[in-house]
Every structure is written in C-alpha cells, then in structure tokens.
Amino acid sequence: MEYHRITSIEDPLFRKMHRLMQDVFPPEEVLEYELWKEPLEDPGIRVFVAVSEGEVVGATEYRYYDDFNVAMTDFTIIGKPGLGIGRFLWRKRQDDLLALAAANGRELFGMFAEIYDPYRAGDHAFGGIKPMDPYVRREVLSHLGYMRLDFPYVHPSWNNDGEAVHGLDLCFLPTNEQQSELPAELIVRFLKRYYAVLPNKPQAWLDMIGALESKQTVRLLPL
C-alpha cells in the first residue's frame, strides 16, 4: 500500500478521493470539488490517500499548527475492510506529525478531532462501509487515547450556509496520558483559526465560543 500526498485537484487520485468522501460523509461535511484547490495547495494542510493497485482505498487529512504545537485530524476514511487501512493511515500520519513537531523543536502536545456521537445523533450509514460505522470508530478512537472535551459542541456547516452542525464531540488526544484538562484559551484560538475559512458562522457557534472564553480550563473526559 502506498501513502500518497495530494497537493492539487489536478492529481487524478484526488477525483477518486473526493468521490469516496461523497460516498461516505453527509453532504454538509464535504467541501465542493473546486473549493479544494486552495486547501490542497496550502503546505500546512496535509492530504494523503492510501493507494492499493491504483485505487484509493482510504484517505486522511490533517494539519499541524507549529505556534500551538497541536495537530488536527480533519478526517480519516477506510474504504474497504480487511486491508489494514486504518492502522496504515494512523501509523503514517503519526510518524509525519511527530517529525513535524520535532522539526519545530518540540514534542507534539496533542491532536484535536471531531468525533460523531451516535448515541446522541443516531446512526449514520457512512456509505455502508462497516469500518466507518460511528460506533466502531468512536470505540477505536477511544482505544487510541482520544478524550472528549467537556462542553456542548457545534461546528459551522462546510456548506458555508450559516447552519450549525450538531451530533459531534470535539475531542483531544494528549501526548501526556495523565493530562486531565486543556486551557480554554487554546481551544478558542484553535477553533477560530480552524474555521476562519468559513465566514458565515452560526449564532450557536458564536455562543459556544463566548462560553469558552469565560472559562480557564476545560476537562478531558472518557470518550
């Protein structure tokens, strides 16, 4: 299996990746094809696909913020069962992030992720791909060490229509397993940076940010 970075919408593997995203994720979670041009050319956004026999069988997007010394996992897609795609993508991504932090002269502080909560939001089929089942994914990410940040989370729709998307938790994977909380300021600064690309913020998101700005810390809870 090959770990291939995509840096242009002209890469023939990008069309295959985008089609896979559309098969797996709900429409409000998938950026339109043409709108990928600038993100893919941004050196800070790292988009990789797992390629087997010329086909895209998995994908992951993530980024490292050197000033915060944290990463964000945007998404991970496992397109087929039984190929070890999840482990392959995790290992390759982790090696890459640790190298980026080391080049920054630091040890990675941790990694954010938005994780579906099927117990609250109900089932989502994820294209009928069983390894993408939200119950399975949530438990796998818990095994990896992700923890839920203790506040009600919403995020702006990637349709940039000003709608709030519910049914996910903002989670964090701390490098230090003994860590039990995060500075609220870090969370606020991260979210404002991450969603700066979407100008139409829903009021629910603005209210959430305001509530976080009134806190000193936010607890990390079991996922």
Characterization of this structure:
With 223 residues, this protein is of the alpha+beta class. The chain has one domain (2-221): 3-Layer(aba) Sandwich (Aminopeptidase). The protein has 7 helices and 11 strands. It has helices spanning 12-24, 37-41, 85-103, 118-121, 134-144, 184-194, 203-213, and strands at residues 2-5, 45-52, 55-65, 70-78, 110-116, 147-149, 155-156, 164-165, 168-174, 181-183, 217-221. The strands form 2 sheets. Strands 1-2-3-4-5-9-6-11-10 form a 9-stranded mixed beta sheet, with helices on both faces. The longest helix has 19 residues, at 85-103. It is globular. The two termini are 31 Å apart. The mean pLDDT is 91.
Give the proportion of residues in helices.
Answer: 25-40%
The count of β-strands is 11
Shape: globular
Proportion in β-strands: 25-35%
Distance, first to last CA: 31 Å
User: How many individual domains?
Assistant: 1
CATH topology: Aminopeptidase
Biggest pleated-sheet summary: 9 strands, mixed
By helix and strand content, what is the structural category?
alpha+beta
Q: State mean pLDDT (0 to 100 scale).
A: 91
- Text of the CATH class: Alpha Beta
